[in-house]
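Feature request, filed as a ticket because there's no other form

It would be nice if the structure record came with a short human-readable summary line next to the tokens. Right now we just get the raw output. Example of a typical job, pasted below so the devs can see what we mean:
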Amino acid sequence: MSHKSQQSGVALIAVLCLIVTGGVLVGAMTVISQMSTVNVAASVDIVRSRYVAEGCANRIVFLIEADREVYGVETSGTTETDYSQYDTDRYLPDGVDHEIDYYGTPVKFRILNGAAGLPMQSNYANSLQLFIPGENPPYKLQEKIDTLTALIDDYVDQDDNISENGQEKGGYEDQSMNNLPRNGTPEFREELLWVPGITDALPLDRLGRWSIVQLPGINSNYLDFYTAPYSILRRYADLDEDKAALVLNARERWRRERLTFEDQLDEELMQTLRNNLSWVPSEYYTIVIERAADPGYPTARLACTFQVSGIAGPEDYFIRYLEWLNF
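Raw output as currently delivered:
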């Protein structure tokens, strides 16, 4: 083979390598472009969903006020409602699934009692004691509650003295949680999540919200039946494991199918629940929007809590929300 032929062969290989490299780069750019398009579209859908959720929340506020105006408010007994007896939907803080059309977008939401949850701003010691059975409390359970109480004591007190089983600044720094503890009353509910181990006793709900703890500014002992978690049913309502599970299953069917509890639970268990937990609305409502987008599209979620002020709205026309959380 001549020298010129060898040079031609090398040049051909080089050209082929450049073509292959160019093809790979074009393919990579195409993939990146498609991924960017998908990401941008998803971000746009999420932003749109947030606007839909916020607008719909304000409509739901009006529907709640209208429901109270038309039907009044039950202040005793239970608020369990047979929805089949009404020609239109009711808007009660009982946790059932609702869906409305908001300018062509189906929005799924639930309404809960905004005053529900354990008060932990100043009454945390008493609230935590609710988890202790009245007779022969398990030693380990009592020890856990005492430790958690000590940790919160050190978080809110204004000194640097470490309580037995508590933790002050040095302990938080060891966990890379600088500038803690506050040494003052928590300013918002989720701030106490910084206290080590607190979610072992007070877990997050299925949506990741800390609904077991009452929002600041309410400060009432209001253990609501429709939002009471398993731990409250077991320890405060004094139900055994089987009965607590039975109640949770009944509440899930109530949420999804609106099948009344009286059709699911015996009278003795119903009386226990009535005696130990509250069934009536308060002046505070929480709206939880779980979907604000068409099926198959990404969605934002929204939780907001407000105090009712009548069908005409607040005198200054501003609704003040105790909680406004997009997630």
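Something like this underneath would help us a lot:
The helical segments are 3-71, 124-129, 139-156, 169-174, 198-201, 230-235, 241-257, 267-276.
The chain has two domains: 1-118+205-228+277-327, 121-201.
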